[in-house]
Amino acid sequence: MSDRIAQAGDKLLDAWLDLSSTLWNTRIVTSMTYNEAHIMGLLLRFGSQEHPLTATDLIRRTRLLKSQMNKILTVLEKNGHITRSRSESDKRLVHIYLTDAGKTAYLEEHKGIESILHQLVEKLGPERSISIARELADVTDTLNDIIPAPNASI
Question: What pLDDT digit, counting tens, does each position of 74-109 carry?
């Protein structure tokens, strides 16, 4: 590997670790874990009665292990934030739905995140923020191509 590629890789890794540490170690979510909030956000944005998500879908999106996903879903269900329902058309599938209480809890947490995002976009500027978001999405897509996903069947 050339020095230029190694240096670029080190810069990407440093930036990735700095961003991850900042987000992970700063309690931007207070009444639930980061992963609970992430899953609830995915259910809110991508799940619906017509197109419900399954645990397998959530594992693919989050890259969590099956055991982690089961634990998180159990907690969310116990707290009344989600319901699980076996598919009528395919009994092997269990659909996961965000409850009204779950939506309310997530949106309440999201208010604090929106405040942080508003300040971040104000400092970076809207155009630069959108450009960075596109670049991060490109990095994520590329990593998803390079790194195999864990076994997602649940």
Answer: 999 999 999 999 988 888 899 999 999 999 999 988
Nearest-angstrom CA–CA distance, 5 and 1: 7
The model's pTM? 0.74
Q: Which long-range contacts (CB under 8 A, 24 or more apart) does 139-147 make?
A: 139/12
List beta partners, residue 53.
Answer: 96
Residue 24 is encoded by which pair of tokens?
Answer: 């992970």
**151 φ, ψ to 5°?**
-60, 115
Q: Which two tokens stand for residue 148?
A: 């195999």
The alpha helices in 26-78, defined as continuous H runs, are 34-46, 55-62, 66-78
The domain limits of the chain are 1-30, 31-146
Tokens 């997602």 map to which residue?
152
Regarding beta strands 53-54 and 82-86, do their DSSP bridges make them parallel or antiparallel, or are they unpaired? unpaired
pLDDT of amino acid 115:
84
Written as six digits, the tokens of 154 are: 């649940």
CATH 1.10.10.10, applies to 31-146? yes
CB distance 40 to 81 below 8 Å: yes
Starting at the earlier edge strand, list the strands of the sheet with 82-86. 53-54, 94-98, 82-86
